[in-house]
Every structure is written in structure tokens, then in C-alpha cells.
Amino acid sequence: MKRIAIDMDGVLADVYHQFFKMDEAEFGQRRKLQDVEGKPEREGFPHIMEYVNTKGFFRTAPLIAGCVPIVKEINQQYDLYIVSAAMEFPLSLPEKLEWLAEHFPFITWQQIVFCGSKQIIRADIMIDDHFRNLDSFTGDTSLLFSQPHNIQSDPGRHQRVNNWEEISKILL
């Protein structure tokens, strides 16, 4: 059975929704997606570190559309792991664990990997929205999940996916 590693933030959890919501609350105006496209997250949202260190940021992130039923099916056909570089934000650990338990109750604690660097991850397939994680990936298939910070970049050796329906067509 092939092993698959799926990133959490930006692939399962809609953190951009959180960024825009908190940015609007702080500055009184909702910016458009085009305002941040092609910019690293820290450039697009100058106060991002405050946002991600706010209690509830990770716990209340909405789901990326369509992910739950497709991840459930992937879980039945692959050796699935949810992999998050959560150590960068240590306060996020309990929130991410609770979020996963709520939205993905079929994923066991043994299938959750919170790490610092994803370079240690060994799998056949990885789905992530950051080049820094995919570029060091040594597996067979790397899927770059489209997000504003990577949308204008050439995916290079990675295959770009724009939504969970596209992932379903590739993997199921």
C-alpha cells in the first residue's frame, strides 16, 4: 500500500480565510485575493505572526472545500498520514489535534505527525502548498496545492492541483 503525506494548513485547513478575517478586523477593510497573490505569506500579511499565535487561530480554521470525503476515501486506499510542521508554532499543537479530531474522526492519532522539518518524512506521495516542503521530498509524486503564495510560481517538478476534486482524479 502506498504511503501518502498530506499537509494540514493550506491543504485541509483554510488558513487564508483566517488571515483575511484577522487582517480585516485589524485594518477595517477586507483586501482582495489579488492583493496577496504571488507574495510570501509574511509579505502579504505583515502581522501574520500575531495572527498564527492568537488563541483559536488554528482551532477555528474552516475546511478547504471538498477535502473530508476525499481524504476519507484516500484513507481507505492508502497508508495515510497528516503531516504538519506544527513545531514552528508550538501553541498550535493542541488546537490542530482538536481540529483534526473534529473534522477527521476517522484519522487515528498514529496517523498524525507534528514535526519541525518535513525533510524527515518518507512517503510515496506528498500534498503540500509550500515548495520548501515539496522540494526536499524524495517520494514519487509531489502535488503542489494552489494557494495565493504559490499561484504565480511555476510548479517545477511538482504537479499543481487546485482543489480536492483534482486530487481525487489523480489518486482515486
From TrEMBL:
Gene3D superfamilies: Deoxyribonucleotidase, domain 2, HAD superfamily/HAD-like. This is 5'(3')-deoxyribonucleotidase. It holds the Pfam family NT5C. The lineage of its organism: Bacteria, Pseudomonadati, Bacteroidota, Chitinophagia, Chitinophagales. Belongs to the 5'(3')-deoxyribonucleotidase family. Transmembrane segments: none annotated.
